[in-house]
Amino acid sequence: MKIESEGPPIGPKDISEIESALGAELSAEYRDFLLLHNGGIPTPDTVDVPGAPQMPTDVLVFFGIRRSTETSNLSWNLALISNRCPDCHVLPIACDSGGNLFCLKVERGVAAEVLYCDLGAECAIYPVAPTFGQFLNGLGKAMASSEPSC
User: Taking the model in full, what pTM does it have?
Assistant: First the structure.
């Protein structure tokens, strides 16, 4: 997988601030991703979300810390999801072209499982992958599975 338009370099202190705002630790896989890339645009970018309408979708951008576009920052998206879906305890980590969010579910003080949050009227949530690493490994595989078979 290739990441373009990475964010500025960050350190463990920056991640600790996000964890403090979230009230949970980030998984080691996601923490390492942030330290290496600090968000960005992935290639390949397609992903299938079982049960969600209009699939497959894309990962338009991964959010980061201190990125030049405010809406691509983790803190901005954490505030957004807190207002839109107050009962959800998640950290938005990316969005698709439709403005829906990919989030890490916070459970037992750790943010690890990847969910798809359809921000339509109902804030529907769909499981995507048990870990961030499995989510990354699944990018681009939706195209092959969505093609008609002979």
Answer: 0.87
